[in-house]
Amino acid sequence: MMWVLVVTFLIFFMHAGFAMLEAGQVRSKNVANQLTKNLLTWSVGVVAFFLVGAGVSALVGGITAGGSYSIAEAFGVLTTSNPADWVSWLFGAVFAMTAATIVSGAVAGRMKLRAYVSYTVLLAAVIYPVVTGLTWGGGLLASLGFADFAGGMIVHGMGGIAGLTAAYVVGPRLGRYNDDGSVNVIPGHSMTFAVLGTLVLAFGWYGFNVGTAASVFAVENGELTLGAFSYVGRVALTTTLGMAAGAIGASALSLFKTGKVDTLYVANGLLAGLVGVTSNTDAITWVGGIVIGLLAGAQLPIVFEFVEKRLKIDDVCAVFPVHGSAGVLGAVLLPFFAVDGFTVGALVSQVVGVVVIAAWTIAATAIVFGVIKALGEIRVTRDHELEGLDSSEHGVDTYPEFGRPDTAADGGFVEDESGIIRADGGEANDGGIKMVTAFIRPDKLSAVKTGLAEIGAPSLTVTNVSGRGSQPAKKGQWRGEEYTVDLHQKVKIECVVADIPAADVAEAISEAAQTGEKGDGKVFVLPVENAYQIRTGEVGREAV
């Protein structure tokens, strides 16, 4: 029980990985929405699985195995006082929630939260439990010989197929496809988050695979001996090799297709390799671990391109090639690398199992989301999608500030008893009002704020913008696809001055923002016809 609890907690920690991985692959305006979906997947889903899903799984397993199974027995976890039952239920729950959270990455950026949560409830209560009842619950597929050690097909394959189906029903994000069917690349906002999430998932995967050897110890003749732990070494070995080979396979295909090793493909390939060996990791040779991992990683760019360009399905986080097709591949290839040797019967059992699980998942998911779509509740409005789901669905801004708040331009200025003294005896800005507008590198904002504070500049307005000047365009790459970056990220500073000379402000900005390279930006000084202070009603220089 202690062993099972420890690995259960490790698998739960994978949700942190999913949260980071998915958040990194969506736009910054949708990050909070993606994180909220991850939080609610666990919170809502685990309750649904406890109250309904665990019982449904047991019921389906008993019925399809040809035996009799009562409702009371199936839902016995709700009334049991046996701690072992509680631990066993929780172990099953973390696997169920892994399948559920995979779907959120496919439909990111356009689905209503209520639609996603509704599906999560049904997936945890019915859709996933039917699959486990047919397999791990001793049901029909188990009796036919279908094998899936830790859920490569049952959990990941099922989740990836459900995600692909959901993405098809909800439709692509705005701007993803042109009228002629050509594809527009929409990069995520943080490669750092995506890679960090990948490594967190890989860490938790050891619990996912190795932890499935649930009976660690046995007692024989009064002595403690190894139980199922006797094959844990094989599981750890093939899991590690599959993980590494998946990253290598995706890297090789990325290099072949684009001439570059795409970072996101490496990360996604590492996970695809893990998925590929998850169903077979206890029963394959080390050679099988490497080959299956390589193939799972290598198929990733090919399948993603097929889904994106042929099927025209907008799978934001590539959940199908990472989890779906990789899960199918690993389950089908098990007999070819089995320690006990290849048999036609084993291959047939694996193919039948994959087909049944896929058919049930597609049908159930399509029905649920089809009904939600018919009710007009599946997708946010056009305005809300353009604005971002963080604001429209949650009323938050994940990144409310840019630049470090270490220097505040508070609108104050320095003067002596007689006022601001000019060496030439005249008034600043020839007695008028000037606006200094600058476009600078985002990383120079803090230095510019400091420079403005040092000359006593008044308050300023700062805006994130993108634009084009002398800085040359460059090629960007997102999951193996190139796109032209001719609009560069800049920060726009606007500073209206009366008593402070505009030339001083412009020089302070120029000095603080300069790096000597193309793309440093420009500063403009413009006349302002008039100004009105809303609070006091003052007009002209006094208003400024």
Number of strands: 8
Taking strands numbered 1, 2, ... along the chain, how are they ordered across the largest sheet?
A: 4-7-3-8
Beta-strand content bin:
5-15%
Q: Which secondary-structure class do the elements indicate?
A: alpha+beta
Supply Rg: 29 Å
What's the mean pLDDT score? 90
The SSE string, one letter per element, is HHHHHHHHHEEHHHHHHHEHEEEEHE
Shape verdict: elongated
Q: CA-to-CA gap between the ends?
A: 71 Å
Helix content: 40-55%
Write a compact overview of the structure shown.
The chain is of the alpha+beta class and 544 residues long. The protein contains 18 helices and 8 strands.
Structure description:
The structure is a single chain. This protein has 544 residues and is α+β, with helices and mostly antiparallel strands. Helices cover 55% and strands 9% of the residues. It has helices at residues 2-12, 14-25, 31-64, 71-74, 83-106, 113-134, 140-143, 152-170, 191-210, 232-258, 263-278, 286-310, 319-333, 344-374, 382-387, 389-394, 445-454, 502-513, and strands at residues 217-220, 223-226, 433-440, 461-467, 474-478, 481-485, 488-497, 521-528. The strands form 3 sheets. A 4-stranded antiparallel beta sheet has the order 4-7-3-8, with helices on one face. It is a multi-pass membrane protein. Belongs to the ammonia transporter channel (TC 1.A.11.2) family. Belongs to the P(II) protein family.
